[in-house]
Automatic annotation (TrEMBL):
Keyword Transmembrane helix assigned: yes
Domain of life of the organism encoding this protein: Bacteria
Keywords: Membrane, Transmembrane, Transmembrane helix
UniProt protein name: Phage holin family protein
């Protein structure tokens, strides 16, 4: 089998073409990364504005619900008192109801927190990927 070797000028021309291709690919990758970062920033700005608006509205709703809770507590206590039970006992009944409701909510919250497992799947797949990369010859 005969191997033909081109002239040095042909090699230089090929090297220049290859160099131009590599530079073009590098330039395109840089532009792609910059565009992706710009897109991510724009999306994060949009999401932050929506989250801030939602958070502010939740704060207002929480304040209004707190005021409503106070008003309803008075109405319930005075309603129980109007039914013939002493005012002190009426307030104890309302307070006990809130304590019971708080205990139930706290218990459910505790159960939910204990059920949190973390990022087990992510840890596992990341460790698997690292193991594969360590085995790959360079």
């Amino acid at each position: 089998m005969a191997v033909t070797i081109g002239s040095p000028s042909e090699h230089a021309e090929t090297d220049q073409k290859l160099s131009a291709l590599v530079m073009s690919a590098t330039k395109d990758m840089s532009a792609l990364v910059r565009d992706e970062i710009a897109l991510a920033k724009a999306e994060l700005r949009r999401d932050f504005k929506q989250a801030a608006t939602g958070g502010g509205l939740f704060a207002v709703a929480g304040m209004l619900l707190l005021f409503a809770l106070i008003m309803c507590s008075f109405a319930i206590a005075y309603g129980i008192h109007a039914a013939g039970i002493g005012l002190a006992w009426a307030w104890l009944i309302v307070g006990g109801g809130y304590l019971l409701l708080g205990a139930v909510c706290g218990g459910v919250g505790l159960v939910r927190f204990k059920a949190i497992r973390g990022v087990d799947a992510t840890k596992r797949t990341t460790n698997e990927s690292l193991a594969v990369l360590k085995r790959t010859p360079r």
